[in-house]
Amino acid sequence: MTTPDAHRVIDQRIDRVVPLTTPALLHHHLPLDAALAEAVVAGRRAVGRVLDRADDRLLVVVGPCSVHDPAAALEYAGRLRETADRLADDLLVVMRVYFEKPRSTVGWKGLINDPGLDGSGDVNTGLRTARALLLDVLRLGLPVGCEFLDPITPQYIADTVAWGAIGARTVESQVHRQLASGLSMPIGMKNRPDGSISTAVDAIRAAGVPHVFPGIDVSGTPAIMHTRGNADGHLVLRGGGGRPNYDAESVAGALDLLRAAGLPERVVVDASHANSGKDHRRQPLVAADVAAQLAAGQRGIVGIMLESFLQPGRQELDPTRELTYGMSITDGCLGWDTTTEVLTELAQSVRTRRASLPASA
Fold it and tell me: Which terminal CB of the chain, N or C, has fewer other CB atoms within 10 Å?
């Protein structure tokens, strides 16, 4: 109960308050059935086996920078499913299905925050749209990966996710390290935008131990979360500070830092962002370098991330013009044809690595 004068001191910069649907209600309307739940568990288990090198395949997290058109994303998923099946002996393909877009300043913040692409901020519709798409992708037989930005959002969608990430802008945040410690899937920690890898290593260590923090439970009730720690944390190299960090020397240095911290020596290379200079046309060059390292026997690289969509490049979100179907409105992406070429090359490098290593390696 507030005091009579409370209106003078609280919510002074809040324009309006809209009730938020609860995770439990959204789960009720868009349920994860037993078959899909088993698929999620199997996907998480498969990712964990690759991270632990019990499975010598390469984890590939590939898909749009950020989903803005669920129909185009689902068409992409259908194509990716066929390619994933073809290359399944060598690649564990997880579709990148990102809904939250961290911004350095301002801009479209993702499908959950603004599903209408018009600044209306209809978060309830965004959550419903996002969960519906995740279920559709799972029905196609693909595991999904998401970046977790808002600490409340996971209660709405995390039950569908096989692999998750904490981004470069939030990896130093105690809130996100605590969140990662309680998430049920493996979590990749990206190095900071300035290139600092030690910050991400610290985040892996922090997320690996129990934490206690305030949050919400599945009913939407404020609760104190007691976590067990996430043993499946790993490092994602995305470049930074004007420099890439995917080359053999950088990878070796990152593995050294993990070893010195007493952490498993495993990295995922993000072929986009600073590693490609934010030029989608350079992602294949990054992937080719990673493929060469794999073929030479590098086992510390357990995965790669690619930003990819139906059409290459990016477009501006302009309300006066119709958007090009299947083209990103955030970071530039590989087109579909180039994506299949890159995935095929990566699969070949895994086969070469497998053939060059002793059976017990």
Answer: N
b/e sequence 146-157, b meaning 16+ C-beta within 10 Å: bbbbbbebbbbb
The domain in which residue 257 lies consists of 20-355
- What's the number of domains the chain is made of? 1
88: tokens are 């399944």
Nearby residues of 266 by Cβ (< 8 Å), 6 or more positions away: 51, 53, 234, 235, 258, 300, 302
- Using alpha carbons only, how large is the chain's radius of gyration in Å? 20
Are 332 and 273 within 8 A, CB to CB?
Answer: no
CATH of the domain at 100: 3.20.20.70
Those residues of the chain that have pLDDT short of 70 are 1-2, 103-105, 359-361
Query: What is the value of pTM for the model shown?
Result: 0.95
List phi, psi (to 5°) of 190. -85, 145
Q: What is the DSSP letter of 313?
A: B
Question: If we measure between CA atoms, which residue out of 66, 82, 42 comes closest to residue 343?
Answer: 82
Inside any domain, residue 112: yes
Q: Give the burial string for 228-259 (b: 16+ CB within 10 Å, else e).
A: eebebbbbbbbbbeeebbbbeebbeebbebbe
E strands of 159-248, at which residues?
Answer: 163-166, 187-190, 212-216, 222-226, 233-237
Cα distance between residue 150 and residue 353, in whole Å: 39
